[in-house]
Design a protein that fits this description.
Elements lengths: L1 E4 L2 E4 L4 E7 L14 H13 L4 E5 L12 H18 L4 E5 L3 H9 L4 E4 L8 H8 L3 E4 L9 H21 L5 E4 L8 H9 L12 E2 L5 H4 L10 H13 L4 E4 L2 H16 L2
Parallel strand pairs: 3-4, 3-10, 4-5, 5-6, 6-7, 7-8, 9-10
Antiparallel strand pairs: 1-2
Helix pairs in contact: 1-2, 2-3, 3-4, 8-9
Length: 270
């Protein structure tokens, strides 16, 4: 399994790590940390030195009830970051986290290689834009799930992905990443049910991204805070890898790579 990044095939035979860089004021874990170039560069250096393959750049908080920002502000934040990445870390693959098709267009023109759309294509122009840009697209299941029973959750998700993947492929989009959307509209119980059945998404035969880093399903279960949720993140990433995750989206890159190394060594010594 591979991803075509600007003509280079990136192997996913061994899972890879996507480091998170949010330069927002209200993200649930790292909001407000990266307001100046020095802080951004230090974070990029950390992601690279710890072995991150991809950086996921986000300028809009996706937490519930986050303060919305306009497209112009989002783009200026992203452009500033992309300029720094290309100047100082040119080998780092850039993913841009956006739900706006026009921002996706401008981000790729400024150097981004992947579009990570947590809305699942809510913008009616997004799929056509991705087809024109010919970049990998991360498709997230992000609809209200609270009203679904646990038994209905997986079939609903498979139907959702099947329909949207078919639309994308008809448009000529070949590199599609699936994100089950942990934390987007599920109950705590649904998140754990989904993790328990994660391997079923292998039948889609597409790269699987898991992003549970320091999320509420962990810290609420442990009755703690995002700052104290690293051990829980490692535990669930271990499960995700055993169930077929290809990309881990995380705040803590070294911990994720160590987890991958342990799981890969385990597989080699069965």
């Amino acid at each position: 399994m591979t991803l075509n990044i600007k003509g280079e095939l990136i192997s996913l035979k061994t899972p890879i790590v996507m480091g998170v860089l949010n330069f927002t004021d209200d993200s649930f874990f790292d909001g407000g940390k990266y307001k100046d170039d020095t802080a951004i560069l230090l974070r990029l250096e950390q992601i690279c030195s710890e072995g991150g393959k991809i950086v996921d750049v986000g300028a809009v908080s996706t937490r519930p009830n986050a303060t919305p920002i306009d497209a112009g502000t989002e783009f200026m934040r992203i452009k500033r970051c992309l300029t720094l990445i290309q100047q100082y870390f040119p080998n780092l693959i850039i993913s841009v986290d956006t739900f706006r098709a026009n921002i996706a267009q401008m981000a790729v023109e400024e150097g981004a290689s992947i579009i990570n759309d947590i809305s699942g294509g809510e913008d009616p122009n997004m799929f056509d834009t991705i087809a024109k840009l010919k970049v990998p697209y991360c498709l997230t299941f992000n609809t209200r799930k609270e009203e679904l029973s646990s038994e209905a959750l997986i079939p609903t998700m498979l139907s959702y992905f099947g329909e949207k993947v078919e639309k994308l492929k008809q448009l000529g989009v070949n590199d599609i990443i699936i994100d089950p959307g942990f934390g987007f509209g599920q109950t705590l119980e649904q998140n754990f049910f989904l993790m328990n059945h994660l391997e079923i998404f292998k039948e889609l035969a597409l790269p699987l991204l898991v992003g549970i880093s320091r999320k509420s399903m962990i810290y609420k279960t442990l009755k703690t805070t995002p700052n104290e949720a690293l051990a829980g993140t490692i535990a669930l990433n271990t499960v995700a890898l055993q169930k077929g995750a290809n990309i881990l989206r995380v705040h803590d890159v070294k911990a994720a790579l160590d987890t991958i190394q342990i799981i890969e060594t385990l597989k080699q010594n069965q």
